[in-house]
Amino acid sequence: MSLALTELTLSHFRSHRTARIAGDGRPVAIYGPNGAGKTNILEAVSLFSPGRGLRRASAGEMARRPESLGWKLTGRLRAGGRPHEIETWSESGAARQVRIDGKPATQIDLGRLSRVVWLIPAMDRLWTEGADGRRRFLDRLVMSFDPAHAEASLAYEKAMRDRNRLLRDQVRDAAWYGALEAQMARAGIAIHQARAAALERLTTAQAEAETGFPVAELALVQAEGEMPQSEEALRAALAGSRPRDLAAGRTLVGTHRADLDAIYAAKGVAARDCSTGEQKALLVSLILANARALAARDGDAPILLLDEVAAHLDAGRRAALFDEICALGAQAWMTGTGPELFAELGERAQYLEVADHGGLSEVRAR
Questions:
Q1: d(CA 293, CA 302)
Q2: 84 lies in a domain?
Q3: What is the pLDDT of residues 138-195, one digit of tens each?
Q4: Stated pTM of the model
Q5: Which residues contact 359 (CB under 8 A, 6 or more apart)?
Q6: Which CATH number do you get for residue 206?
Q7: Average of pLDDT values for 332-355?
Q8: What is the pLDDT at residue 207?
Q9: How far apart, in whole angstroms, are the C-alpha atoms of residue 326 and residue 315?
Q10: CA distances (Å), origin 217, targets 207, 266, 322
């Protein structure tokens, strides 16, 4: 049986003072007017995985206004054929806490149990925005395969912040740089290898599938030159770049300079030069490939979050998307303004209507 949330309760989360949703493992089609709180439900589900959720918001930003008392999410997660009780919450804007089956847990523990992959409208600019957004997108996919990727990323970022502080202060003590560069090299190579392994999995998943969505040729590229392939090489590259980095006041070599390159394979056109519809189709293709790769590895598909995705696809591609979701057995939480956007799903989905009554959201099953 695939990964699924069979119960979800939101308390003082975003627009929802309280909401309770029961799931049965089928896809969940959520519809209602703009501003009713549909995306807030998806954001709540995204927090059943490591990180800051699909909006990358701080814990304080998720609290219902004007009370701002804090928030709590509880859920029954079906994973590995058995149920788990998950709680995650924040009090007065403090970092969110996690409890699994009644015991305190880390977000990494949560990532080993639950895998959630999402596509939201803000990602539509992925191929035309800066490299930072593509790295975040890629790293989210990587974390779905390897939750420890988050720890390596945090270690790298912390060491790089400290190194950048030395650079801005024009410190020239080689010993201080050497210690930080060793940390960056160790974490940086782990990050690079995890990214490369994830791209291999995605490429294989795309090649093995018959799908109504285009295949993307994917590659990791560096802003300058080639990425060093060993800790020693990266450490040497960082040391060699110190004079240039001192002049710039920041680190110009390393994993943080990577970018995700994609080409629409059938046309040989870079994703950034494709039409808006083609760019969206490539994104959907990658999300589906991620889900297929996880299902092939783990025996069950991740939970998918697809915000307003149906509105940007024609009827043929909508039907293809829904067919693939159902073939995977994935619990996909999807939003749209009306039930007609999910007509091709028929009885294969649950339907939830979200209404906004004077600023208080109400969720009811149809």
A1: 10
A2: no
A3: 999 999 999 889 899 999 999 999 999 999 999 999 999 999 999 999 999 999 999 9
A4: 0.90
A5: 15
A6: 1.20.1050.90
A7: 93
A8: 87
A9: 17
A10: 10, 10, 24
Q: How many folded domains does the chain comprise?
A: 1
Q: Is residue 123 part of a domain?
A: no
- Look up the domain containing 169 and give its range: 129-301
If one counts every other C-beta atom within 10 angstroms of the C-beta of residue 173, the result is 8
Residues 6+ apart with CB under 8 A from 76: 5, 6, 7, 83, 84, 85, 86
> Do the domain assignments include residue 245?
yes
The answer to which of 82-91, 123-132, 295-304, 310-319 has the lowest mean pLDDT is 310-319
Angle made by CA atoms 28, 34, 37, in degrees to the nearest 5: 55
What is the H or E stretch that residue 237 is in? helix 231-240
CA atoms within 13 A on the CB side of 341: 20
In this model, does residue 15 exceed pLDDT 80?
yes
For residue 361, the SS3 value is strand
Q: How far is C-alpha 116 from the geometric centre of its chain's CA atoms?
A: 7
